[in-house]
Design brief:
about 40% helix; 13 helices; about 350 residues; alpha/beta; 4-stranded parallel beta sheet; globular
Length: about 350
Amino acid sequence: MPRASSGAITLGMTEQLLPIGPADIDAAARVIAPFAIRTPLLSFPVLNERVGAKVFLKPEMLQRTGSFKFRGAFNKVASIPQDKRAGGVVAFSSGNHAQGVAAAAKILDMQATIVMPADAPLSKRERTKSYGAEVVLYDRDRDDREAISRGIAEKRGATLVRPYDDPFVIAGQGTAGREIAEDMAALGLSPDIVVAPASGGGLIAGVATAVKARYPRAEIVVAEPEAFDDHGISLTAGHREPHGPAGRTICDALMALIPGEMTFAINSKLLARGVTASDKEVGAAVAFAYRELKLVVEPGGAVGLAALLAGRLDVAGKNVVIVLSGGNVDADLFAELVA
């Protein structure tokens, strides 16, 4: 477990102890460096001209397994003591965390069992299996995925790898923010706004921790699908609140009901606000990324870009960083969106 002392971050005149700090992200960066891809910051004149800002995209679809999730998954799985690895790992996920954990377990020669919703995109289920993981399906509307996962872990003596409420996972995701801060510094620029999507909040919590450590004036904004904006609701309320009954969204990776306890402890301190984008706007962003930028982004990964293109952010004349969190999209859906 990362040391509590490393989570001390100065916020105004008060020092708050948070679940992780910059030192934990630095440690995670050393752990994952031999295995993870350091994704670049990309800037495109066509996008800059359209929104009147200098925009940098962090393309985590180029990351191993096609999303940022490999970062946190590998950092967590690598932290498991050798004498605890024989039982393997168990995770629950709609797809990207599943693939990250499965790939990490394969690298470290451990067995992985992944509990996935039966309606998860077929491509994500098949890719998870391709890493050698066992996939157990559940009904998203009726079953308790965490209870199923705990039961399997207890029966097999396995380690449960949570998708976001774990300090090693958050620190691993924070390496994306560390790279953003380093690359912006190398360009001689300061980020005014950094936007990342959220389901349980692990990515944005890690990114916020890393970026605010170097650029305390940067605004960290969470992007969510319309009607699935539990982070935005919770930031306004000042405490964790679920979103209302919302059915489905094409952003299948961003359907968590409520922010994580550990992640919200960070996000409630470091995030400026939340923005949303409709499925139609997300689809348009996926198409824009493909047609104009030649990038393949999954809907959940494009929600920050969608909010930017829809005018939900005041970016005129500013330096803006948008995290594109993944690119694992079913071919049929992708074809429909870009058609």
